[in-house]
Structures are given as C-alpha cells and as structure tokens.
Specification:
The chain is mostly helical. The protein is built from 29 helices and seven strands.
C-alpha cells in the first residue's frame, strides 16, 4: 500500500506506474469490506480468483468509496505503527505489504474513470479528491511511529541480513520513506504535506486541461479537402464526423493517431498547418485551459519540497534511485546522441527541400511539412510507400502476432474469454485468458481496449489491475493494454502504420513483464523508471522478424503475405527519418531535465522552452514530441519527471540486448537466449538491482555503440 501513494505523487503517476495488490484467501490482514453496498469497495468475485465489476461501476460511487478505503487503510497502518511487539520484518514490512486491499480495488476503478472513461462529472470528483488523496499519502509517509519501526528493521538487517527478497523489499520501503521526508522535523513535515496537497490539485488540473483541448479542437473537412488522404482514413474520418453530429463531413481529431497520418498524406498545406497547430498548442492557447502558469507553480513547489530535505534541485533528489543515479549521467548520455540526431535532421530536411523544389513548390520546409515530405523522400529513396505498408498491418493480425511471440518466448497461450463471462467497462474491450501452453497453468487475464473515444486520454499504455505475488499463495495477474487507434468504418479492417504497430508491440511488452513476474512481495513489482521501458522497447524488435512478417503481415484484401521486395525495402529503410524520431524525443527529454535543474522563481515557461531549444540548436523544422504545456508524462504526475530520458537509457539496453539475439544461432527465437531473457530481465521485476540483472543476461554492461548503429549514427570514438 505505502508504495502506491508515497513513491510517486500525482494521480496519473499513481494509477499508471504502480501495481495494485489484491487479497488472497490466506491473508492475515483483515479485510473490512466483505459486505458493503458500494461496488467499488467490494471484494472481487466471479471466475479467475475474482475480477473487477467494471460493468457495475458508477462515478457516483467514487467519492464515498475512496474516502472509506482511505479510512480503512489508515486504520491498518495505525495498527502496524502501534503494535506493542518489537518491530521485525514480519510484523512491520510484511504487514504493510498486506495492507490497503480495499483502496487497491478502488484505485483500479478510479484509474479506468481517469484514463479510459473520463467525463465532466468524474473530473469534478477527481478535482475534489486529489488533495484528499495527497493528504492521505502524507499521513502514511509522515507517520513517525511507523517510520521508526521501519528504520529499526532496516538497521537490524545491517548486522543480521534477511533473505534476498526480504532485503530488497526492506531497502525499497526504507528508501521511499526517506526520500519522501520521513526524517524531517514537524514543521518541515507539515510544509511537505501542504506542498504535496497543492501539487496533487495542479497535476489534476494540468491533465484535464490537455484533455479539454484534445476534445474541443476538431478540424472538420469537406469532400474537396481530402486530396492525398488514404481511403481507410477518409472512411474513418467520415464515421467520426457522423458520430459528432457532422454527417457528410470528415473529422480530424486532436490526437496523435488522427493528426499523424493527416500530416503525412494531406496535400492541403493550409489544413496541415491548422491540424499541426491545434495539436502542438494543446494547453498553450492563452485561455482558461492554458497550462504555462500551472507548470511554473509545479516547478517551484517541487524545488521547495526537495530543498526541505537538503537537495539543491528536484533532479538530484529524483534520480538517486534510478539507474542513471545523477542528472549529470543522464545528460551525458543525451548529449552524446544529440549532435548526431540534429545533424541527421539537416540531411533529412535537405532531401525534403530538394523534392519540394523538383515539384515546383516555392516553400521552405516548416514543421507541418516534415511528415508530408518525409513520406515523399521515403518513396524516392527506398521506393517505399507507407500507405502500401499499412495494407499489410491489420490490427487483428498484429494481435495474433504478439500472441505468437508470447508463445515462442514465454510459452504463453492466449484464449478468448467467452463474451459476458468477465465484466468490461466498454463494448470495445475484449478479454483473453493467459495460460502456460504446456502445463495449462493459469497465468492471468489480458484486457485490450484499442480504440480512441471521447473521454479517453491519448496515447498508449499498459496497466495492472492485479499484480503477481507469492506472499500468501500465488496471486494471478490481471493486465490491460490501451491504445487510441482510430476505429474503422463498419465492416472495414483497422489498418495502422508501422510506427503504431511498433507501439502495439511495445505496450504488449509491458503486459508480458507483468505476466512473467515471479516475486514474493507486491512491492517487488514496482519499476525503476529508466529500466522499466527496456523490456517493452525490446519487444518491438520482434515485429520485423521473418516469422512475424511471413505469417501475420498479410494484405487485408487478398490475404497474401507481404512481398519479399517490400520487406527488403522496410529493412533497408530502418534508419530512415531517425533524425526526426530521435530529435523530437530528445528535445522533450532535455527540456524535462533542464527545467528541473533551473531556478523556478519567476520562470517564464514559454520563454524557457524557446530559449533552451535555441541554445541546443534545435532544428526549426520540427517540434518537441511533447511540448511543455502538454507534457503529461512530467506534469500530470511525477512518474516521468526528470525521467523522460529513461526511454533513451532503456534503448541503450534494448539495442545491446537485441544484438545478443542477432548473434545467437536461433536468432530472435533462440531458446537459450529467450530463457535468459525471461529469467533475468522479465521475471525478477524489481527483486534485484537492474544493472546486475542485465549483467547476468548479457555477461557484461550494455554499450552505447549498439544504439548508434541501430539509428545509423556515427559510433563515438573512445
């Protein structure tokens, strides 16, 4: 319980980063919610050791359920803190691991309402509850008696070490409390709690402002404005417009999944500029939903909070328990890659400008032109048409492909659950049973919520509704993947881009990480931010394996496999547009870090972003992937704050690990390497130090050279 609410502050981070624990039949901690009229509090019943009652949840139940669950949890915490017996691992740490079951359940529903099924009604509830949840968290982190018990167990373990799993849990628990002000005096603790309370409200408002701009900036087209757009996009846009009350028109929604293909294919430059502006101006429109002032307040409060504990800046505090350890190490990695990335952008823009000149377009490439002309360069250099590739990327077939990979690497079998057997929160959601293919042992359930809709936050993510642990007997996993693919017109297949297909594999990698967990204690399912993306990034590599391409990438009309010539074009173009991809990402990561290293007093966010990018020589032809006013990873919570660099850190591991498979006799399906992959990189979760886990897998440290080779950049000289 403590880990969910102390390790991160900010509701989005809480709900999306941490795992939830769930009761087992042998649990020693009494559950006081076995009989209640509020479904969000009730123990999960039904098949598969119980499942959430998603079909019965109502927004009206959220406030009373959350308040009751927090009350019950604090009663449990007080019982642990005031135990008259001398503190030991069992009566303190294990007791905490078993606590908070009712609140875990409520947070599962809360997460669905927040991320998948948001509404104006829920946002009001969310705004009201945010400071209350923060206050609840502070009551745990600042419980002096509780911390003294934890500290006693921690000190005793220095002379009488525990079992490795117990030692790891103890160290994680102690570090979380220490990092969150447990050692502060009474005055500083009070201010610390006030700051967290203020931040929780700011995070909620930030997130809701972005969601507002995504929902309210829609571009409607007429039939004369469709030049260049693929047929499947046009059909989908027509259906979306109809659903929004604009029958006969075509809707471009303000989400990446709608914006990206429009900017890639539309011949209408003025409309490309409009769609681009809508998307990159989210949270930055100078109105009641503008986030710039909120960000300034967030940065100031974060700095003040860590200074209470003696840190100079937020980044120093945050990175101490990450693989990078210091902001200097993170910056060093980013700046090794940055010069090569922006140099590649110059080359890419020159190629685009040449094509524009050949076509007689008297223009200078602007950000809303980049995707459009990059596609033309792709066709010219590699004779590769992204729309042609999409004809072989059917969402249903890609789902079958990830099941195939899970079978080959993890020995998992996915079987559809009969409709109606497991409750879902929306008709688009489907559920699969996950079992060991040989033994038939039940591993868990996989929920898939693939399509964009009003009230669903943008992007793609994975969530655990119930995590594996062996504390009181085996607890099975309930996990979900969530995407924002644009739903096809009735009767049409959902065709997606190669980038979206990679993202689909990526997020499924998180789910496999959840399912493969083999830990005793719930806390050991927590992730190290600059490591936890590694496993999912690695899984992207299996999309381009011959086995997947030959079996699952088939034409949506003919059923014919992707031609070898097209496969070769895709592989030859693997480093194409890496300037754009790397630069837009790294710009966001660098701004994230530099904002948290800067003095936040009187900071002008727009000016800081603009001037910092100028200092970095950011190419004017493309924006950051996440401009600061819409950077939900960093400002709707703290899960990725000063940690967005982690994707690059993880990608160093990814590229290096991929070469281990490339070097193996069986390639990406080599049984021995796959066994080590599961044993050292997936199953341990956070039960061992990530650096040590990687060394056990690879036999050495990861090297940056593989990353540079992957992206087609010059390998730095030692």
């Amino acid at each position: 319980m403590y880990n969910k609410l102390i390790a991160v502050t900010g509701l989005t981070a809480i709900l999306l980063v941490t795992s939830c624990k769930y009761e087992t039949e042998n649990s020693e901690m009494k559950d006081e919610t076995q009989s209640t009229e509020n479904v969000l509090l009730e123990k999960w019943t039904g098949p598969y050791s119980g499942v959430p009652a998603f079909d019965k949840m109502e927004v009206s139940d959220v406030k009373p359920a959350m308040r009751k669950a927090m009350e019950l949890s604090l009663t449990e915490i007080d019982s642990i803190a005031n135990n008259p017996e001398p503190p030991n691992f069992e009566n303190t740490i294990e007791a905490m691991e078993r606590s908070g079951k009712a609140l875990d359940r409520v947070f599962v529903y809360y997460g669905i309402f927040s991320s998948n099924m948001s509404s104006p009604e829920f946002r009001e509830v969310q705004t009201e509850l945010a400071p209350e949840i923060s206050e609840y968290s502070s009551k745990i982190s600042q419980n002096e008696k509780l911390f003294q018990r934890i500290k006693t167990v921690y000190e005793n373990a220095k002379t009488n070490p525990l079992d490795p799993d117990q030692q790891r849990v103890l160290e994680l628990v102690y570090k979380d409390f220490e990092m969150n002000g447990a050692d502060l005096d009474a005055t500083k603790k009070a201010r610390y709690a006030e700051i967290n309370k203020e931040l929780s409200s700011l995070y909620t408002k930030f997130s809701n402002n972005v969601l507002h701009d995504e929902e309210n900036y829609v571009t409607f087209l007429n039939k004369d404005q469709l030049s260049g757009l693929p047929d499947d996009y046009i059909k989908s846009a027509a259906q979306i417009a109809k659903d929004k009350g604009h029958e006969g028109e075509y809707a471009v929604t303000n989400t990446r999944s709608s914006m990206d293909p429009f900017l890639t294919y539309s011949d209408e430059r003025d409309l490309r500029k409009k769609v681009w502006t809508n998307y990159y101006a989210r949270g930055d429109n100078g109105d009641d939903y503008d986030n710039n002032e909120l960000i300034a307040q967030i940065l100031k409060l974060r700095r003040e909070r860590v200074q209470l504990m003696g840190y100079d800046n937020y980044a120093d505090w945050r990175l101490q328990d990450r693989m990078a350890k210091t902001p200097e190490n993170a910056m060093d990695l980013m700046m090794k890659v940055w010069p090569a990335a922006i140099a590649r952008v110059d080359e890419e823009v020159a190629d685009m400008q040449e094509i524009a000149k050949e076509e007689g377009a008297n223009i200078t490439i602007e950000p809303w032109d980049y995707r459009y002309y990059a596609e033309k360069v792709r066709k010219k250099k590699y004779d590769l048409n992204s729309d042609e590739v999409k004809q072989y990327l059917q969402l249903d077939k890609l789902r079958d492909a990830i099941f195939y990979v899970a079978d080959r690497l993890f020995n998992y079998q996915f079987t559809p659950v009969e409709e109606g057997k497991v409750p879902v929160f929306h008709p688009d959601v489907n559920v699969w049973e996950v079992t060991d293919k040989d033994s038939g042992e039940f591993i868990g359930l996989w929920y898939l919520d693939p399509f964009a809709r009003t009230g669903k936050r943008s992007g793609a993510w994975a969530t655990m509704y119930r995590s594996h642990n062996m504390l009181d007997g085996k607890q099975t996993v309930l996990a979900s993947n969530n995407s924002n693919f644009v739903k096809a017109a009735p009767g049409e297949p959902v065709l997606i881009s190669w980038d979206d297909a990679e993202t689909f594999f990526h997020e499924f990698g998180h789910a496999l990480h959840f399912f493969s967990s083999n830990v005793k204690y719930p806390t050991l399912n927590s992730g190290v931010r600059d490591y936890t993306e590694f496993q999912s990034q690695l899984l992207e590599r299996w999309l381009s394996t011959d086995e997947v391409i030959n079996q699952f990438l088939v034409h949506y009309q003919t059923g014919e496999p992707m031609p070898k010539e097209l496969v070769e074009k895709i592989k030859k173009s693997s480093t194409f547009n890496q300037g754009f991809a790397t630069t837009e990402y790294l710009a966001s990561a660098l701004i994230d870090m530099k904002l948290h290293l800067a003095d936040p007093d009187n900071i002008d966010i727009d000016k800081f972003e603009r001037e910092t990018l100028q200092e970095l020589n950011m190419p004017k032809e493309l924006p950051m992937r996440h401009r600061t006013p819409q950077f939900g990873h960093v400002f709707s919570g703290e899960g990725y704050a000063t940690a967005y660099y982690g994707y690059l850190w993880a990608d160093v591991l990814t590229s290096d690990a991929a070469e281990a498979f490339q070097e193996a006799k069986g390639g990406f399906y080599d049984s021995e390497v796959a066994k080590k992959l599961v044993e050292y990189l997936f199953a341990p979760r956070n039960s061992m130090d990530p650096a040590e886990a990687y060394r056990l897998f690879r036999g050495r440290e990861a090297e940056i050279d593989a990353l540079m080779r992957d992206r087609g950049f010059p390998v730095p000289k030692n």
